[in-house]
Structure to design on (210 residues):
């Protein structure tokens, strides 16, 4: 669903990206700005229990994750450094969001949900690490139930609705995210294992080969 929505969002963001590019603002600056805004908003609003306004502000900054890509494609400025920076700062942004939730749960005495949110943070980082490590070995790892966009949507929507007073939605969203993250890690491990086994078999020579 998110992949289908990306072209529409890209069309919406293109005029803004073009305007920023004309002013000499690089995609990397947009990436850093979006991450800083995400972390600042999460650590300001969430620990105070202001989940809905915090989610709205965070969502605005998260859109920078799409905007920097739009600008890079328009200006032909895609680079290894840009891709590396984007992936690295994605982890920082995720850490800010879930750290804010963990603090809020601890302050409000919801220790079980604090543990679940912390697990979501660690599991999300592991999901990304498995893919990065596999691709570093030259293997494909573009599989999984809950990639970063899905994790962000589930986390932010559940936090926003929880901030509006919808009962149980935040807890349900975090538990769903925790389970989906574990499933994704397992999916990626099995996918890489199959590729590694095939590659190893391909290196073995049959008895008739010289």
């Amino acid at each position: 669903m998110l992949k289908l929505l990306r072209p529409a969002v890209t069309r919406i963001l293109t005029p803004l990206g073009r305007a920023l590019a004309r002013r000499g603002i690089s995609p990397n600056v947009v990436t850093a700005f979006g991450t800083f805004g995400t972390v600042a908003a999460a650590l300001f609003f969430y620990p105070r229990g202001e989940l809905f306004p915090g989610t709205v502000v965070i969502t605005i900054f998260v859109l920078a994750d799409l905007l920097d890509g739009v600008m890079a494609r328009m200006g032909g400025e895609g680079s290894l450094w840009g891709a590396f920076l984007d992936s690295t700062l994605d982890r920082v942004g995720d850490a800010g969001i879930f750290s804010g939730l963990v603090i809020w749960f601890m302050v409000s005495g919801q220790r079980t949900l604090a543990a679940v949110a912390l697990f979501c943070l660690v599991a999300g980082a592991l999901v990304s690490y498995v893919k990065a490590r596999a691709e570093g070995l030259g293997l494909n790892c573009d599989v999984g139930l809950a990639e970063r966009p899905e994790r962000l949507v589930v986390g932010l929507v559940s936090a926003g609705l929880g901030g509006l007073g919808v009962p149980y939605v935040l807890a349900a969203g975090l538990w769903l995210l925790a389970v989906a993250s574990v499933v994704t890690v397992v999916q990626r491990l099995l996918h890489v294992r199959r590729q590694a086994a095939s590659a190893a078999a391909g290196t073995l020579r049959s008895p008739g080969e010289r």
The two ends are 51 Å apart (CA to CA). The helical segments are 2-22, 27-45, 51-62, 64-75, 80-107, 111-136, 148-163, 169-203.
